[in-house]
Amino acid sequence: MHRERAGFAASNVTVRITRSFRFDSHRIHSNYGADCSCGVVRAASSQCPRFKPCSSPTTTSFSRSRSKVTTGRFRARHYLWLRGDVTAGHTAPKSQKLKQHVPKAIIFDCDGVLVESEELHRITYNETFLSEGLSHIQWSQDYYEVLQNKIGGGKEKYWYHFDKDGWPSAEQCGFDTSSHSGREAFVQHLHAVKSLRYAERIQKDETISLRPGVGEIIDAAHTRGIRLAICSASNRESVHAVLQRILGAQPHAAPKSDSRLDKFEFIIAGDSVPRKKPDPMIYQVAMERLGLGPSDCLVIEDSAIGLRAALGAGIRCVITYTWYTRSQSFDGATAVFGELQGVSLEDILDAVTVSSR
Length: 357
Description:
The protein is of the alpha/beta class. It has 2 domains: 94-117 and 208-355, 3-Layer(aba) Sandwich (Rossmann fold); 118-204, Putative phosphatase, domain 2 (DNA polymerase, domain 1, Orthogonal Bundle). It is 32% helix and 12% strand. The chain has 10 helices and 12 strands. It has helices at residues 118-131, 141-150, 154-165, 170-173, 180-204, 214-223, 236-246, 281-290, 304-312, 345-355; strands spanning 3-4, 8-10, 13-15, 20-23, 28-31, 82-83, 105-108, 227-231, 267-268, 297-301, 316-320, 335-337. Strands 9-8-7-10-11-12 form a 6-stranded parallel β-sheet, with helices on both faces. A two-stranded antiparallel ribbon has the order 1-6. A hairpin with a 2-residue loop joins β2 (8-10) and β3. α1 packs across α5, α3 (154-165) crosses α5 and α5 (180-204) runs parallel beside α7. InterPro entries: CbbY-like, HAD-like_sf, HAD-SF_hydro_IA, HAD_sf, PGP-like_dom2.
């Protein structure tokens, strides 16, 4: 995978986004800062006191807060490198610009696009295993990255894992996993417990918020008369818990009826369709509800699975990847952004226009 350290050039414009990530056992922290002398993105000390400037051109040091970090579960994978294939807005002179392609509807994925929640999902899966007496099963960040990039949906992740690594015995889990019906009941039980835990965490975790830059894109699209919808592979309970948290509160100084969640016409969750992403069904259903064709829609996704679902439905797809999906191939995407902070709706529409030439 080709990577660049501090910036990239595309369509005669240079985009510079610096971001650092820190993972601990309960939270995801993201801060914006400056480039360190070694070429690795670091957080500004005023924003992130746990990070220190590099002490040498090739090493980066950081300190841990004992009150927040659990020894052994902390992974120092906090640098999100920019990929060289990130597409920026086209900046040709106005006289050379084509007529901008403006879709009639934009369909957003939830996890990874509206909110960075993948690590919280992983933690909740592991807590569910512990509470169900399966302490020997703990999904690492590396393994969950594989699951996240390969399997769409929570129940499907359980099936994939147990089919590959073996099903627990009835003595271990309380279900007859020697039969298909017993395995289905076991997966349903795990899924229900995990969903409840996740919804509870969403309400308590102060780090859960709308991904930077996304709110401005939603507001601009709504003002411009572009219809909005959400299609997520997660189950209905998890999706609604997240959306109420990040979109349900009204914007500053706005009446309650003007909450961002009210700007979306509908939400389709993963358990609302029989086939999940990368199958295109969820986007086909969305187009039916919108009464629009593929050329009138635009999808914003964060993963190759979501990209395949959008392309399978014939819809253009813009990617904004996360730490968990940064290494994926996004062949076929209309544009790829490492972050939406500082990216406007006009940038996205210009990228769609340029790619359609």
